[in-house]
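INTERNAL AUDIT FORM
Audit reference: QA-55
Scope: verify that the stored structure record matches its stored sequence.
Auditor: D.O.
Record contents follow.
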Amino acid sequence: MSSIDYKAIQDALTPEDIKRILSTYDVKPYIEAVNYIVFPTVCHNLTGGSPKLYYYKDSHLFKCYTECGDVFNIFTLLVKINKLRGTPISYAEAARQCGIHGLSFLEGGRIKSVEDDINYLYNLLKTQDVSIHLPTLNDSILDRYIFDENALKLWVDEGISYNTMRKYNIRYDPIENAIIIPNYDINGNLISLRGRFTSADSDVKYRPIIYNGKVLSHPSSMSLYGIHITKEAIKRQKLAIIFEAEKSVLMMDTIYGDNNTAVATLGKNLSMQQIKMLLKLGVQEVMLAYDADYTDYPTMELKRQEYQKIANVLKTYFNVSILMDLDFNKLQYKDSPIDRGKEVFEELLKTRIYI
């Protein structure tokens, strides 16, 4: 009996075939790069859609980075599109639409499951080279700044030890009255400097440092703060705790030392590059430890939904949990889960939400 060899069809489709197939549905790419093509999110939008549906040429799989958060092949995408348009088709019919060069029906083929596809993508991402050659800075730039215990006592009072600040190369700029936060890539190369400006009349608390007329910043999506130091603990424990800001990583170091598995994304967005870095380190579990941007149940629920979307992307690759102050009695507004110390943090760990 003939069967459809879905994997054979999927792997035989070239990027040009994918564009041709989707063009019949009036779906055109936004961007094409060496390794991927970006399409509108037609997987869940009947019209419009943001440029967040990525087709990866190596894996022959799509990944949606918005509401779906799913990994799927071209057949599943066609099923989704047709369902949205009120013209439902079967998985087999989608494969027939994609059939090329006699590959639609093959003797002795097998149906490859979505789970197999996801495992394939996981292994591909885990083994791919994740080296990104960000522009690096000369370490001598840090000689412009000093380690002043009196000036840095502000952070000691907030729970960051001098030893931790030395380990992470925190400095002070007496001219700008700013705490200097160096950011390093996973290999320990200096890639940017950010300042915590402490003067009462500062227009912003945090911004990149300007040195000799140059803004010393890097794309936050291309690295994780603290990973050059915490990577060994992350490897051992197969766990990464993801915070928003650098201070949380530093507080975690003061409390947990060499067992600190924290990194910071400098915001809430997580990129594929960051996911690949964690996979390369063998991470199996990710905890999202975002700031308490909620004061009541309605705002908490909105935030939970926001975090859920991020978790939906991550759960393809990791076990995921979210730390939240569910009873509004442990954190203050805008607190990081580590801001109130070890005891409160570990209480939040006990009540974290598993996704």
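Auditor finding: record pair retrieved intact. The chain has twelve helices and 18 strands.
Action required: none
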